[in-house]
């Protein structure tokens, strides 16, 4: 097992902030609720493709393009704006504050690393009252997660080497990216339930964010 991390990086969307509250915005727009999952998958697919191809689109460009694609380009501009705006008005998971407080009490600095974009991520955190030491954009010209550059940028922002940086995420593909970058990985099962058989497992598994953080912080030095 790796050493105990001295800093923690949290994935943003669906890890700290569930996307399920967006469902009512889809319903208001007349879009079947089932298409929300398709939108998320479509968005990630195109983001990963852009990373491989060296594309320089921002998160909002990809999110809007994916919405248009899954609706056959029939979505009204006002409905599209409402869904995108909803991404900055999400509520955190009930144990998100506890997870961050646990790190803070242990003297471990924290950051968020997500695809939302730095300014929107800060807005989301400010509205929720969650406090972290750094916000790092995991999307854009330097490469989207799960490229190693995103995780290494988070470690650098926290001033610690990758091997002493812990990643807290609810996504198996995110764990794979963190491991490839040399991070200590913690996976919360609250989204996927079972870890993907395609990737090497996380160093620590937890049922929720608080348990995952505790597991990372109890690793031996």
What are its keywords?
221 residues; alpha/beta; Rossmann fold; DNA polymerase, domain 1; 2 domains; 6 strands
Description of the molecule:
With 221 residues, the protein is an alpha/beta fold. It folds into 2 domains: 7-18 and 90-217, HAD superfamily/HAD-like (Rossmann fold), CATH 3.40.50; 20-86, DNA polymerase, domain 1, CATH 1.10.150. Helix content is 44%, strand content 12%. It has 9 helices and 6 strands. The chain has helices at residues 23-28, 34-53, 59-70, 77-86, 96-105, 118-128, 148-158, 172-180, 209-217; strands spanning 7-11, 110-114, 134-137, 165-169, 184-188, 204-206. A 6-stranded parallel sheet has the order 3-2-1-4-5-6, sandwiched between helices. The chain is globular and about 55 Å long.
Helix/strand/pairing category: alpha/beta
Distance separating the two termini: 10 Å
| Major sheet strand order | 3-2-1-4-5-6
Mean of residue pLDDT? 92
Low-pLDDT stretches are none
Number of domains: 2
Q: Tally the helices: what do you get?
A: 9
Tell me what the CATH architecture of the largest domain is: 3-Layer(aba) Sandwich
Order of helices and strands: EHHHHHEHEHEHEEH
Set out the fold topology.
Layout: E1 7-11, H1 23-28, H2 34-53, H3 59-70, H4 77-86, H5 96-105, E2 110-114, H6 118-128, E3 134-137, H7 148-158, E4 165-169, H8 172-180, E5 184-188, E6 204-206, H9 209-217
Parallel strand pairs: 1-2, 1-4, 2-3, 4-5, 5-6
């Amino acid at each position: 097992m790796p050493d105990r991390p001295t800093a923690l990086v949290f994935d943003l969307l669906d890890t700290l902030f569930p996307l399920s509250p967006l469902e009512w915005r889809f319903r208001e727009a007349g879009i079947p609720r089932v298409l929300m999952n398709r939108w998320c998958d479509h968005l990630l697919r195109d983001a990963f493709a852009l990373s491989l191809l060296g594309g320089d689109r921002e998160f909002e460009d990809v999110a809007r393009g994916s919405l248009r694609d899954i609706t056959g380009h029939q979505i009204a501009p006002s409905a599209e704006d409402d869904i995108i705006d909803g991404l900055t008005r999400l509520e955190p998971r009930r144990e998100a504050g506890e997870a961050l407080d646990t790190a803070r009490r242990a003297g471990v600095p924290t950051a968020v690393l997500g695809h939302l974009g730095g300014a929107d991520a800060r807005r989301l955190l400010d509205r929720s009252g969650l406090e972290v030491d750094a916000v790092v954009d995991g999307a854009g010209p330097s490469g989207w997660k799960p490229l190693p550059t995103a995780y290494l940028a988070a470690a650098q922002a926290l001033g610690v080497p990758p091997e002493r940086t812990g990643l807290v995420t609810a996504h198996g593909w995110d764990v794979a990216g963190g491991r490839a970058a040399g991070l200590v990985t913690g996976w919360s099962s609250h989204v996927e339930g079972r870890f993907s058989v395609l990737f090497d497992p996380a160093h620590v598994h937890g049922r929720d964010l608080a348990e995952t953080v505790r597991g990372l912080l109890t690793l031996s030095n």
